[in-house]
Design brief:
- The protein is mainly beta.
- The protein has one domain: Porin, CATH 2.40.160.20.
- It contains one helix and 13 strands.
- An eight-stranded antiparallel β-barrel has the order 1-2-3-6-7-9-10-13.
Length: 215
């Protein structure tokens, strides 16, 4: 491990200002999460969060190395304490309000595919810099679970039929050095063809928090 780090820094130090270089990075984020566009009978959501990690490959677009495209792959976990009752009955997803529930938790596991346009004030020998990254993140959900307690009985529904496994949203990150502010806004509803009392369930996700980029 020590040898790998030494070689990595030696390669960076051998570059000259103006040389082309790639800023490949491991990323990790932690976010406060909320549901958007909930049905009108759903009044609130409790504390919810998301975490993710992955790797982004950098493709330089100019000689200075200040502009690039980032393409990545990662994993994300979301935890929602929400106010929408979700059941799977006879292979059909049924939605209602959760007024009589003692607890109501929704968790997801996703594969992430970020695509970013990147601007930064770096060069080949400058490791601390300002950055603005924006783009699109595509998600593939491989596991979702809805759990609630009602009248002392626990219910759990896994991989419900109405869940939208393919989603995407816009991302925006801004900051200096390792720590950056990060926002994700989902452009696709998390449910397909879902209704509650004839009203469409167009629930989407908004997350904002911190993202860490590690060279």
């Amino acid at each position: 491990m020590i040898l790998f780090v030494s070689v990595s820094f030696a390669q960076r130090d051998s570059l000259q200002i103006g040389d082309r270089y790639a800023d490949d990075q491991i990323y990790a984020s932690i976010s406060y999460a909320q549901f958007n566009q909930q049905p009108s009978i759903i009044s609130k959501s409790g504390f919810s969060f998301g975490v993710s990690t992955g790797f982004i490959k950098d493709f330089i677009l100019n000689k200075q190395g200040t502009i690039s495209i980032g393409i990545g792959f990662g994993y994300g976990y979301d935890y929602f304490n929400h106010d929408l009752k979700v059941q799977e009955i006879n292979n059909t997803t049924v939605f209602s309000d959760s007024a009589n529930l003692n607890s109501n938790i929704f968790t997801t596991h996703n594969l992430e595919f970020p695509l970013e346009f990147r601007w930064r004030t770096s060069n080949a020998l400058k490791y601390d810099f300002w950055r603005i990254y924006t783009g699109v993140k595509f998600l593939y959900n491989f596991s979702n679970t809805f759990r609630f307690e009602e009248n002392g009985t626990h219910f759990s529904y896994k991989n419900i039929s109405a869940y939208n496994n393919f989603q995407y949203g816009i991302t925006f990150s801004v900051g200096y050095d390792v720590i950056n502010l990060h926002v994700f806004y989902n452009l696709t509803p998390i449910f397909k063809n879902a209704t509650i009392n004839t009203e469409s369930v167009d629930t989407s996700i908004l997350k904002f928090g911190l993202i860490f980029y590690i060279l």
